[in-house]
Design goal:
Layout (H helix, E strand, L loop, with lengths): L16 H11 L4 E6 L5 E5 L11 H11 L9 E5 L3 H10 L3 E8 L4 E8 L3 E8 L6
Parallel strand pairs: 3-6
Antiparallel strand pairs: 1-2, 4-5, 5-6
């Protein structure tokens, strides 16, 4: 790839489109970049999630993060993580918007406060707050 990739985009098929939009756009505050509709009930919305990274984890690390954040293996193969300014407040807002808490905000060995949620669209998400201000 000449010049490398310019964007990471994760495409998720969601059964309840309106609930997913309300959660990710309205509750998590991801700005709408574009939205399109087509024949019948065809709809798609692209949300800006800020800086994107691709985290590749082997099975041992995947199990370790589940253990740290939740205390047991729970995550499917894919999980989304969003850095937020206040993990506790963002978790409460996410729950109000329809997410279910899998594990409350928990301090990790790498100095972040991480909450695990089941979000609309059957997605496991982590909301994390960097505690030392370093960011990732």
């Amino acid at each position: 790839m000449s010049g490398g990739a310019r964007q990471l985009r994760l495409i998720v098929e969601v059964e309840d489109y309106d609930a997913a939009v309300a959660f990710f756009r309205d509750a998590l505050g991801l700005p709408e970049e574009a939205a399109f509709s087509g024949d019948g009930d065809e709809r798609v919305m692209i949300l800006d999630a800020g800086r994107a990274t691709l985290e590749l984890a082997n099975p041992a690390h995947h199990r370790y993060v589940d253990q740290v954040e939740v205390g047991r293996p729970v995550a499917p193969r894919f999980r989304l993580a969003f850095e937020v300014a206040d993990a506790t407040a963002s978790t409460a807002e996410a729950v109000e918007a329809g997410a279910q808490v899998v594990a409350p905000p928990t301090e990790t060995p790498w100095r972040s406060l991480n909450a695990r949620l089941e979000a609309p669209g059957d997605l496991h998400i982590t909301l994390f707050e960097e505690l030392d201000g370093s960011g990732a």
